[in-house]
Specification:
The protein is mainly alpha-helical. It has 19 helices and 7 strands. A 3-stranded antiparallel beta sheet has the order 3-4-5.
């Protein structure tokens, strides 16, 4: 039975079901391929839900994922055999070494997470790097191949040529693998020598003022103020969810953004029409805050090193979330059960559902509210430099994309010749 290590940061040798499956002499080549697909599926689900190895997890996977929709009889039979093989493999691992077996996918993700945590990478960055490193591990197929930069180069080239992902996605995948080879595998020089394919920036989806108002009218009441703030201040969704009580300055009509994209800070506008609603929101939040304090709930998480420098600051009112979650949850970085902010995907679904409810024929996401903020300001006469500062763009060219979708800026006020023809015909 194979035992391998993913990197020097691993705590010891781990068994790899992928390598043992590939080397199994009691299975045909066809059976190996048939088993690999459902086992990779199960592993990704198990790791994504932070569940341990074992029979109970497999049973849960079978009920939640396999039986969630009708399957062919041959599929159920084949997958049953695959999971039986996997359970027998796990039992042999435990008997031989007493270790909990981990898949290659899981070991690579774990090594990236542990190393990234030690190096101070943000949780979202770690999760992104873990995702790309895990996908590469699945494609590589063995612990030797996953540590080979030549294999990584080949995989990145396939990503560009076959999947035709955007330029930003290409860079993200490259950065993840460079971190994996340099910081996890301890290679001194990492040059993957990949030629990226430049892609044109997409024209942003912009809502009219009437469409924005329709969404604000029907969106779930719990998320109405958040949607109004995002449109009214032009925030990214994570900037919105990370707002604290202290970030709202009603007297100066300003919102302070901290630790944003690129770890930057800026100030943007607080709509005067939301000041009264903000006061109402704070009154509701004060009740939640006081209840948490009286029940001994740990304070909210603080960014960066502030939590270590001021361990009790998270229990102070000014650091409380502007949009806190309804329930307590486990902090993924520390394991502490505390109150976190509303999950971005929960808010995002609320915006999408509101857009569908009013029948908008556009691909509406939370970012459409930020795009609309920028476009409407340009149409109202705001200069491009001021808009760049409000949006927090490093490069003015990023802001200039909105000139292509405004009604009266950048030449888009040109009228179609068909309109003149039709007017002439009707006269």
């Amino acid at each position: 039975m194979n035992t391998t290590t993913t990197s020097s940061s691993s705590s010891g040798p781990f068994y790899s079901w992928e390598e043992d499956l590939a080397a199994a002499r009691d299975l045909s080549k066809r059976e190996k391929e048939a088993f690999r697909i459902p086992l990779e599926w199960m592993t990704r689900w198990r790791v994504g839900n932070n569940m341990p190895s074992g029979r109970e997890t497999l049973r849960r996977f079978w009920v939640v994922k396999v039986l969630e929709k009708p399957r062919e009889a041959w599929q159920l039979e084949q997958w049953t055999e695959a999971f039986r093989w996997y359970l027998a493999w796990e039992e042999r691992c435990m008997r031989e070494r007493g270790e909990i077996p981990r898949s290659l996918y899981e070991r690579v993700r774990r090594a990236v997470d542990l190393t990234g945590s030690r190096r101070g990478l943000a949780l979202n960055t770690r999760r992104t790097y873990m995702g790309w490193a895990g996908r590469f591990a699945i494609w590589a197929g063995s612990s030797e191949a996953v540590k080979d930069p030549a294999k990584a180069r080949e995989w990145l080239e396939r990503l560009v040529a076959e999947q035709k992902v955007s330029f930003a996605t290409q860079k993200q995948a490259l950065n993840a693998l460079v971190f994996f080879f340099r910081d996890v595998c301890k290679l001194e020089e990492v040059d993957l020598k990949v030629k990226f394919r430049k892609t044109q920036k997409r024209i942003p989806i912009v809502l009219s003022i009437d469409e924005v108002l329709k969404i604000l009218d029907v969106i779930d009441e719990r998320h109405r103020l958040a949607a109004a703030v995002q449109y009214g201040a032009g925030l990214r969704v994570r900037e919105l969810m990370n707002l604290r009580i202290k970030d709202i300055d009603s007297s100066r009509q300003q919102i302070s953004i901290h630790c944003s994209k690129g770890d930057k800070s800026r100030v943007t506008v607080l709509p005067a029409s939301l000041i009264e609603l903000m006061d109402t929101q704070k009154a509701k939040l004060r009740e939640i805050f006081e209840r948490d304090r009286s029940e001994g709930v740990p304070g909210v998480a603080l960014p960066g090193a502030l939590g270590r420098k001021y361990p009790k600051a998270g229990e102070r009112w000014e650091w409380f979330w502007l949009f806190p979650g309804d329930k307590l949850s486990t902090d993924p970085s520390t394991g502490i059960i505390r109150r976190h902010h509303v999950p971005p995907d929960v808010y995002g679904r609320a915006v999408i559902q509101a857009a569908r409810k009013v029948g908008l024929e556009k691909r509406v996401t939370t970012h459409a509210l930020r795009h609309s903020f920028a476009t409407h300001l340009l149409e109202g006469g705001t200069d491009i430099r001021s808009l760049q500062e409000l949006l927090g763009h490093s490069d003015i060219r990023t802001t200039e994309i909105y000139t292509h979708v405004t009604k009266n800026v950048g030449g888009t006020c040109v009228k179609s010749p068909l309109d003149a023809v039709m007017r002439r015909q009707s006269s």
